[in-house]
Write a structure and sequence with these properties.
Blueprint (H helix, E strand, L loop, with lengths): L8 H13 L22 H14 L16 E6 L5 H16 L3 E6 L2 H13 L1 H8 L4 E4 L5 H9 L4 E6 L14 H7 L10 H7 L3 E5 L7 H9 L5 E5 L7 E6 L1 H6 L5 E10 L8 E7 L7 E10 L2 E9 L5 H4 L12 E5 L4 E4 L4 E3 L3 E2 L4 H24 L6 E6 L6 E3 L5 E3 L1 H17 L14 H8 L6 E4 L1 E2 L5 E2 L13 H9 L13 E5 L11 E7 L8 H6 L15 H4 L1 H7 L1 E5 L4 H15 L10 H6 L30 H4 L1 H10 L2 E6 L3 H15 L6 E9 L5 H5 L4 E10 L12 H9 L3 H9 L3 H9 L1 H23 E6 L7 H4 L10 E2 L7 E2 L9 H11 L3 E6 L17 E5 L8 E5 L7 H21 L5 E4 L3 H10 L8
Parallel strand pairs: 1-6, 1-7, 2-4, 2-5, 3-4, 5-6, 8-24, 16-22, 16-23, 19-22, 23-24, 33-34
Antiparallel strand pairs: 8-26, 9-10, 9-15, 10-11, 12-13, 13-14, 17-18, 20-21, 25-28, 26-27, 29-30, 31-32, 32-33
Helix pairs in contact: 1-3, 4-15, 12-13, 23-26, 23-28, 25-26, 25-28, 27-28, 28-31
Length: about 950
Amino acid sequence: MKFNFKIQSYQTDAVDSIIRVFAGQPKDDKNCEYTRNADIILSDGQLMRNINKVQARQNIHLSTKLSCDMGRCALDVEMETGTGKTYVYIKTMFELNKQYGWSKFIVVVPSIAIREGVKKSMEMTVEHFMEHYGKKARFFIYNGKELSALDKFSNDPGINIMIINTQAFATSMKEGAKNRESRIIYSMRDDFNSRRPIDVIKASRPIVILDEPQKMGGAATQTGIRNFNPLFTINYSATHKNHHNEVYVLDALDAYNKKLVKKIQVKGFEVHNLRGTDRYMFLEKIMISSNKPPMARLEIEVRQANGIVRKTKTFEVGNSLFLASNGLQQYKDGYTINNIDPVSATIEFVNGKVMHTGEVVGDISEKDMRRIQIRETIQSHFEKEETLFRQGIKTLSLFFIDEVSKYRLYNDAGEELIGEYGRIFEEEYNIILKEYLQLFGADGRSGEEDEYQKYLRKFDTRNIHKGYFSIDKKGHSINSEIKRGSDISDDISAYDLILKNKERLLSFDEPTRFIFSHSALREGWDNPNIFQICTLKHSDNAIAKRQEVGRGLRLAVNGSGTRMDAQTIGEDLVHEINKLTVIASESYATFVSDLQREICDVLYDRPTKTSIFPYLSDNGYIDADGSHILDSMIENGHKTMVQKNSLNENFKKKEFQELWKRINHKYAYTVNFDSEELIKKSFEAINKELHVSQIRYNITSGQQEDTITQSQLQNGSTFEKVTSHSQNLRNAHACTSPYDLIGDIAKGALLTRRTAGKILSKLTAEKKMMFAINPEEFITKVINIIKSQKAIMIVEHISYNQIEGEYDSAIFTSEKHSTGFDRAIRAKRHITDYVFTDGTAGQSIERTFCERLETADEVEVYAKLPKSFHIPTPVGNYSPDWAIAFKKDVAKNRFYLIETNGSMNSIQYREIEQAKINCASKLFNEISTENVRYYNVDSYDELLNIIQDTNPQSHDI
């Protein structure tokens, strides 16, 4: 099978954008006696005018000056990954030769991976360009040991292309270097007609094409390119870092909406109900600062009110993980940072344990997560494969792994063995395969006769997956080496394998459908029929999401090599067939959010057709001096809101002063009840109510919308969530952290160890087993159940005594509020001018109650009580909501403390809160002699009914 290339309008536009820059340049038919490109005779002004015409035609921002730091001009072409950037610049070379006679080209690439890919593309397009231009280009990879190729580059009359990777500039091309390769190119050679090879290159005045120039910022590379003496340069990238004269833009949004790349579907994973017992740690990176000591970014588990979550925190030497985790026992034994070493990229704890950057420890969910990822990849593969098979399209899935040994092992005799991921793959594949080997095929024939079912039965499971890795001298697969400062390998042995089998992998005669490769080899993969990509490694954000999906964005081809684009199958079907599923190693929301942000960051900012500035000026939005009146309409959302809400005249009213005098006391309580009764009620409630959560995975799947706008990217709404399902963790490991179970429960529930121990001893075996499933949740829930039982018992046994001390009036103004004054209620009867109610709802119970207090004729003055005004109870401090003074004759009692509570979440929390309310009621309605009544209501009308029922004089006659 061979690829069929076709003329596509957007690629032709990209080529024409370069050709038009040199309009007016005569064609050099003599080709300067074949040894060099003819000089550009156009003036800088002519070049600038041509560039501006192209930019206006392409709706690109007009350049104001000519970029000529390398040659007469430097042109930028922006093309999204997967749209045929390499094809475009190969065709551009042919067209420049046809129009202007230029024939010497050098293609500079940032890595061996891209170099080998470019060479492969040139090999694959030879016949295609021969058909359209009637000639072939001669291309070669620069090698200082083979100067004959350079001699032909100089003297051959046809199109000549030298391909060189940037690593060569640090070795072969570095002037003054002492290595053999540099001496070759910068010295006169007898075997090169007493010429310096670099002078031959300079004399040819090559046109230099930079593929991914944002990765070529090194001084050696930049100097080396200038030493080529380029006629001009053209930069091709999807993400330009340094901008020159841009002449063509096809960004990610354009490519997707024009259906030139695949639609992306994401399957993400979240772990819920973490146990917090396995000393989970992930060392993300070590941060170095010029004015601070080294710091480490660690992801650890943290106890929160709603359970255990994983959070990334920054640590210095001396910081304790135990404290940072809010007291999780798993980090108690010596997990304080003793040393941070940026040189070795390690941290050491006081217990002697050492972690390296990128290392994960204590992640019991790791193996199960990888199994689920492999399973979901196989499932996604099968979901697409039958439909694609019947259209003659081979389906491939690609796994990236970080250790070859997880897929392939060797015994002492050097024999190849299957690794952990290979074993898991075969187990999961065989399970899913059975589901698809149905009795009858899709066309009604028996499964034995159905073509797709015959295809599935054709190959043994061990033959349908294959690994592509670097190869050592023994022929063994090994991890690909990565140079410092890069996450991409330059191992030629691996890319040779990958590219050699590119066409064969697309044949149905080739059994391989699932491919495993090292994560450092990502740049080598651009097979168009990759429909699933799965990265089997801990998500560390080191790999950009666009890079992760980029290997599978190209539109698929069928068995005859024809691309499945709008020309072939119609626009409506492009994204039905071409859909890339990314099986992420993180949550759906995180992956999609990061991907959208990365795309948004590199989108080209197109100029608008008409300017808005005249409108702004005419309407007074811009001053004559150019300053923006609009600036004053915008404020910093991070600006700290300082609430100044002083006490007003209502506070001084005698009615409020009398009320304040009656309630401004501090109290202490005593409770006497039978411990045996508490023990009995507690263990009975625990045996009846206790349930703990198992570790659970949530798998969420979604895909891109059919069309995407820039505003959708900016607000993160380009994906639509499709499905979500959950499953429990299987084969969870036993708890490894030591616990003082009795002590922890005694401390949390405010009991003696003896009482806590008796309660635990009475639990059923089933309930005791729950501790092993999730210790942290077990402890938390047992404490809450005991507290709720205490809450029920204490009210009938509690007594209060007034103690010394009063509250200062400053408590009414010292409390800070996160909401602004626009959300507060402007008050007339309150002791401050504004009332800040709890809750975010527009008409919460508190807000409605407050609004009624403002309009009720019966109310003289009132106050919203701050949290710092509280009553102690055995289950926690309690703060009433309101203090109200009614007018005379409205009720028998004029002074009231009121609670306006909404719904409470759980039964246990309701019981605890109700116990607090009952304690307050007992204090004010039974114990206190201050004649202040306390009630719990949900509306002002309910309060009015209560106080009027207790005051017969207020009833209507």
